[in-house]
Specification:
The chain is an all-beta fold. The chain has strands at about 5-10, 20-25, 30-40, 55-60, 65-70, 80-90, 95-100, 115-125, 130-140, 145-155, 165, 175-185, 185-195.
Length: about 200
């Protein structure tokens, strides 16, 4: 219907829990309405919530999929594990319901130490029942304060309820900035600004 939707991570003073919200504006209106998609509660084990990046796309059935990164706590560990949560809207963003609480096998440790990942961005897009999810991360190497840029790529064939990693090598020899994912002529396009 020409409406414009924006998904955002919201932290407001005086509000107990951070939230994921969607703002909507009609094509011929300057006023935004907003709806809370999800409140972000402290992960298991009292871990801090990571920097959170929401992303949306329209699925082939017309529904809108919203995904954001989360930290899952692991019993006996002070290190969280990277995962993603999905919500779905069947009414063009007016209401949202939980679609899936855990999208991947959580094998990626969150943090800034060696062997740990820090999320830098998230992109999703859909074609013909397939959803591609790109997670831009920094990976801590053995050197103190030394990071590699990595791009984790996952695909879903069940409407965004579960994802499987589709790449085994994801280091960039040169740095990258602002990874973006789009769909054109029935194909996924990945673009980024590279350092040479």
């Amino acid at each position: 219907d020409g409406s414009f939707l924006i998904s955002v991570y919201v932290r407001e003073s005086g509000v107990v829990n951070d939230r994921i919200m969607v703002y909507t504006r009609a094509e011929d209106d300057d006023t935004y309405s907003r709806v809370t998609v999800s409140e972000l509660f402290t992960p298991f084990g009292g871990l801090a919530y990571p920097e959170t990046y929401p992303a949306m796309c329209r699925l082939s059935d017309g529904n809108i999929l919203l995904i954001y990164n989360v930290s899952n706590g692991v019993a006996g560990s002070s290190v969280g594990r990277l995962n993603f949560r999905a919500y779905i809207s069947t009414d063009d963003g007016v209401t949202w319901s939980l679609h899936s609480d855990r999208l991947i096998e959580d094998t990626f440790s969150i943090g800034t130490g060696s062997g740990e990942y820090t999320v830098e961005g998230l992109q999703i897009a859909s074609i013909n029942g397939q959803v591609l999810m790109l997670c831009e991360v920094k990976y801590g190497t053995s050197g103190t304060g030394v990071f590699q840029n990595r791009l984790l790529q996952f695909a879903s064939v069940d409407g965004g309820q579960t994802f499987t990693r589709v790449t085994s090598t994801y280091d960039f020899d040169a740095g990258f900035h602002r990874v973006r994912l789009s769909v054109r002529q029935n194909a996924f396009y990945l673009v980024y600004i590279a350092e040479t």
